[in-house]
Amino acid sequence: MALISPSRRLRRTPFSEGVEAQGVKAYTVYNRMLLPTVFESPEADYRHLKEHVQVWDVACERQVELRGPDAGKLMQMLTPRDLRGMMHGQCFYVPIVDETGGMLNDPVAVKLSEDRWWISIADSDLLYWVKGIANGWRLDVLVDEPDVSPLGIQGPKSDDLLARVFEDSVRDIKFFRFGWFQFEGRDLAIARSGYSKQGGFEIYVDGTDIGMPLWNALFDAGEDLNVRAGCPNLIERIEGGLLSYGNDMTDDNTPHECGLGKFCNTHTAIGCIGRDALLRVAAEGPVQQIRPIAIGGDKVPGCDRPWPVYANGTKVGQVTSAAWSPDFETNVAIGMMRMTHWDAGTTVEVETTDGMRPAVVQEKFWI
Amino acid sequence: MALISPSRRLRRTPFSEGVEAQGVKAYTVYNRMLLPTVFESPEADYRHLKEHVQVWDVACERQVELRGPDAGKLMQMLTPRDLRGMMHGQCFYVPIVDETGGMLNDPVAVKLSEDRWWISIADSDLLYWVKGIANGWRLDVLVDEPDVSPLGIQGPKSDDLLARVFEDSVRDIKFFRFGWFQFEGRDLAIARSGYSKQGGFEIYVDGTDIGMPLWNALFDAGEDLNVRAGCPNLIERIEGGLLSYGNDMTDDNTPHECGLGKFCNTHTAIGCIGRDALLRVAAEGPVQQIRPIAIGGDKVPGCDRPWPVYANGTKVGQVTSAAWSPDFETNVAIGMMRMTHWDAGTTVEVETTDGMRPAVVQEKFWI
Hints:
Chains A, B: It comes from Cognatishimia coralii. The first copy, chain A, is an alpha+beta fold. Chain A contains 8 helices and 22 strands.
């Protein structure tokens, strides 16, 4: 691996000081912000995540805030998911599409009130699309990026840790719901959500100034829980089938291709900009779709580019995320497969950067 | 420095293979794409750039293509620079602003024909803003990112190198103009432009497939010119006063604050979305502005966050790019200074990450 050059453009976060003190070894860049990728090693971080509790600097999940009378209308224009039944205090995973139905982002929408929303974004400048749409359609709404930085608490001991720092009622937060809790006199939204399958929360840290005080409070409170700094873990997220925008999908893909058809209510999501384009896809189904894929042989190299997938010498798909899974003792992978070769049990070949490997399309993700 | 984790999301370029073969040591991420930052060392790369010729993988300067009857109208909506006099074959540096006059990007617009433009972007997803505006205003224009990757040729021997690979008439290309030249039967636009003050060109490589053939042809032809792989050099670009979007300016800043008032024709740029907001700024002038700053002491650390600038204990600005200059034997820096302290010769203090340093506002950049 090469080094990453520091610059202000690759933004630090309210938690960077804590991340550095915990010995971060590698980063990626996500929304022009530093996102840790390795502390001890991907395998050791993975094992710890499955057994204990980790604090994740995911400030790079920037918020796009919509505020004003047209906030709800604008939010529905952005996504084919029907938002009419959504209540305050709910989080919805929402595919965001352009006028052709191409995915621009796959964020979580947080409904604070009828006229105030946060969109907690994946890796693309969704702010620019939303601002452009609001301007062009002359909507009565303010769109900007507030000083709000999510902090992830992930792992089986997450409830225990948060109950100590906030109050016991954090245990009652339901999946993809959030509640308001106080820290040093400030109200923070805490949601039961996060980019792992090990359970946990995301704290929407409102204000850079309380970032490190909260970070330190969590580590002070969790010493006997073996709390550590962590980060989204490549192995665990592939096992769990958590997609990554920019890796497993781009604006070339429709939500249906990404297996997100269940989040598309194309008949009732009136006002969605990409609705017309998606109606046909919704009726006929996609011709390619995301699939879990097990790749044979020993540990694969890092998947730094799409790996073509072949059957009888013909390209039938591509793999875009892959890692060796210690728990399942195979290389777990996410790929986009043509419908002719997407059935579970289909054997194919994957051209990795260190050679061709046998592979099998799986019925389900691993966890 | 920490390591950078490979993933498909941090896109490789058509020239990555060549960059790796030349021993790249560090990267940054720019428009979600890998941009080399160091080959031998920042100082050695700098010296070589000033004496010989380098080939730069700047594919990360992605293009936003506008095509259709409303392309010119849309282009003018994006920028306060008056584009009416612009001819085919010209490149214009164009601040791009939102409805508040905040900078969204500072790209180079390339006019291919009346109804076809490329916008060669700095580090933000300008594509999303342009697509949103085109959609909201119902313009008759196609907006997308084509498979076009700029390759920079920079340094005093640039003309000699390009004349060998293309034809002698590349020497006749004027500054910020481009011409069409053939390589392996394909027409490529070559502009006299680039992100250094050492002279040179940018080749708009149209098609990933000819990336490495062109790269190899340049190295084969330039052996006796001492051609090497290079990259935008932090030291040289600060000496030359070349601003970096995301470092020296963000969407918090107007073009006038960035010293780009000369590119804002607020009275005649009819249709520009941010024009109303900028009219007042243009009349009254900004209250803070970009300035060259010399920082005392030995080599400063990497500027990975804004460094506050103080005078008598009061914050009067910030430094966002800084490096030790071997040629000028001082730390050269770019900062945003309040008007009370922006005059040349003003002495201030800069709080770097390794302590307070004396500094002086300069009259001009160094080269």
